Amino acid sequence: MLRAMGSILEVNDLRVMRGRTTILKNINWHVARGEHWVILGANGSGKTSLLKALTGYLSPTAGGFALLGRRYGTCDWRDLRFQIGVVTSAFTASIPPSERALDTVISGKYAQLDLWHRIAPGDRAAARRLLRASGLLALADREWAYLSQGERQRVLIARALMAKPRLLILDEPCAGLDPVARENFLLFIEKLARRPRGRTPALVLVTHHVEEIMPAFTHALLLRAGEVHAAGPRALMITAKNLSAIFGAPLRVGRSGGRLRLASRPA
Length: 267
What we know:
The model has no long low-confidence stretch (mean pLDDT about 90). The protein has about 270 residues and is an alpha/beta fold. The relative contact order is 0.16. The longest helix has 15 residues, at about 180-195. The protein has helices at about 45-55, 75-80, 100-105, 125-135, 150-160, 180-195, 235, 240-245; strands at about 5-20, 20-30, 35-40, 60-65, 70, 85-90, 165-170, 200-205, 220-225, 225-235, 250-255, 260-265. It is built from eight helices and twelve strands.
């Protein structure tokens, strides 16, 4: 049962098993309006499996989850999935090299890769507004093949926003970016997160790099071996003790100007 009318996402005792293997075990997680979360964990901790479950590509074995008060299994998740925007590099290979950035953005409204849907009046204007907000309006007619990796990630965010989602998942969006492009992209994410409430969805950043956690992210979900190690306000979660536990090595956390950095310490 949802905790409050302010809930965006509610995950209750979610368990996913395939054969005798437990992929996710008793996941409990609550995202309220106005919160921006980071999901942090080592490779194999369950981050990708949790995303697949939330987007309907991995069916729960037990427990469940609800988005905007509508519970998975009791409604058509294909329709509700429009309320979840996803930005992942996995989309890159499915976008035609000759597709213009403007058309890639429009495709998000129709949950398509390789736009073929007949577009509605106003789609192009809406897509241009999103490209302008992303700082990419000058590249609206540039083909996908000629966009840099950082430009592609911004186009994919504009694409996800085209459907006006209530939840936007950024799945390791900095993978493949050089240091300068990564920093510029993270500053863009910070700006997006700080737009007035009601103009931006709840953000969920999936990463294993604490350096990518911008100040606007308010909460953290820490995963370890398919289970929740800790979840709550970021300042209480991102500690040397917690990070050492989820990454399986002695670590220390530094802070400077609202940014984080991680370093190893002697065992």
